[in-house]
Amino acid sequence: MGWPVMHSRSPMMHNYWFRQHDLAGTYVPLAIPPEGLASALRALRPLGFAGCNLTIPHKQQAMTIVDEVDTVAKRIGAISCVVVRPDGTLTGTNNDWFGFIHNLKQEQPGWRADAGPVAVIGAGGGSRAVCYGLLQEGAKEIRLVNRTFARAKSIADEFGGPIKALPWEQRHDVLDGAALAVNATSCGMIGQPALDIRLDKLPKTALAADIIYIPLETPFLAAARKRGNRTVNGLGMLLHQGRPAWKAWFGIDVEVTPGLRAIMEKSILSDE
Ligand SMILES: NC(=O)c1ccc[n+]([C@@H]2O[C@H](COP(=O)([O-])OP(=O)(O)OC[C@H]3O[C@@H](n4cnc5c(N)ncnc54)[C@H](OP(=O)(O)O)[C@@H]3O)[C@@H](O)[C@H]2O)c1
User: Fold this and answer.
1) Span 10-36, mean pLDDT?
2) What's the mean pLDDT in 61-82?
3) pLDDT for position 272
4) Mean pLDDT, range 148-163, rounded to an integer
5) What is the spatial distance between Cα 43 and Cα 27, in angstroms, rounded to a whole number?
6) Residue 109: predicted pLDDT
7) CA 127 / ligand 1 centre spacing (Å)
8) Average pLDDT for residues 116-143, to the nearest whole number?
9) Which residue from 55, 101, 186 has its CB within 8 A of the most atoms of ligand 1, so it is best to mutate?
């Protein structure tokens, strides 16, 4: 469910898994305006849905509608996945952090969150999931910068631990000595300006990751690749967050295969 939603790549991915597992079902985009979210979520059970994913602008509002918000979604402050339980009640969770971490692990085998300082640029919903995941994985130092400092500060205050909020002016300097740099802003997404950052202080050994997947290579990733850094784009974050959803909806372990990635990449490239 989203508003708008017809651009979503999620149906392609979930319907790939329906075919792969020979399961009689389908994943449909549901265009639901904010004022219709409560009725739409309540209709999941009578309509026979196992659950749904939520995208912009529903991830926060849904927290006030579902019967239970699990501890992960509470911590991240947003629901990305709703599960209809056998008794018909709705539980909300967030799988975006799982998607981010498992994409890095699949794309860069041996990657560790505690390999060195992590620079995270951006402090919106995606960043909250990224920071949560990095903390789960044992990151020892997270340097968080955002255009609006207060949003970075509130993540650092809420999550605590090794997250340090720093002013936007320091975005170039936080890359100094970093093992991982993440663009978690919407800058570089199709139709948006590129992220305004200089990479000269980023070690050549560092990994550069983006959570954006349209385009597959953002200007941030292109600049990092050109100077010799390894890069990981945001497509796998979308793909991997689908795995725990399938486990919760159908009890099935699905995989992010090269075939699935290829189908998704082809579809995105045809739109770029
Ligand atoms: N791969 C995935 O599965 C996945 C999952 C979630 C999100 N995403 C993608 O991640 C991106 C961010 O999503 P979100 O949900 O976190 O959005 P959001 O909550 O609206 O946050 C947007 C972030 O971008 C920053 N920003 C926007 N314009 C900027 C500019 N001109 N200069 C500097 N910073 C700017 C915002 O800073 P301010 O706080 O100052 O406004 C904020 O930190 C989107 O492209 C989304 O599609 C991907």
Assistant:
1) 97
2) 97
3) 75
4) 96
5) 15
6) 96
7) 8
8) 97
9) 186
What DSSP line would sit under the chain, residue for residue?
A: -BSS-TT-SHHHHHHHHHHHTT-S------B--GGGHHHHHHTTTTTT--EEE--TT-TTGGGGTSSEE-HHHHHHT---EEEE-TTS-EEEE--HHHHHHHHHHHHSTT--GGGS-EEEE--SHHHHHHHHHHHHTT-S-EEEE-SSHHHHHHHHHHH-TTEEEE-GGGTTGGGTT-SEEEE-SSTTSTTSPPP----TTS-TT-EEEES--SSSS-HHHHHHHHTT-EEE-SHHHHHHHHHHHHHHHHS------HHHHHHHHHHHHHH-
266 part of the active site: no
pLDDT tens-digit readout, 2-22: 999 998 999 999 999 999 999
Give the Å distance between the CA of 25 and the centre of ligand 1.
32
Span 157-167, pLDDT tens digits: 999 889 999 99
Q: Which residues line ligand 1 (CB under 6 A)?
A: 96, 99, 122-127, 146-148, 151, 185-187, 189, 193, 211-213, 234, 237-238, 241
Distance in Å, CA 125 to ligand 1 centroid: 7
Distance CA 84, CA 96 (A): 19
Tokens of 1: 């469910």
Ligand 1, atom 12: closest residue by C-alpha: 186
How crowded is residue 192: how many other Cβ atoms within 10 Å of its Cβ? 12
Dump pLDDT digits (tens) for 87-110: 999 999 999 999 999 999 999 999
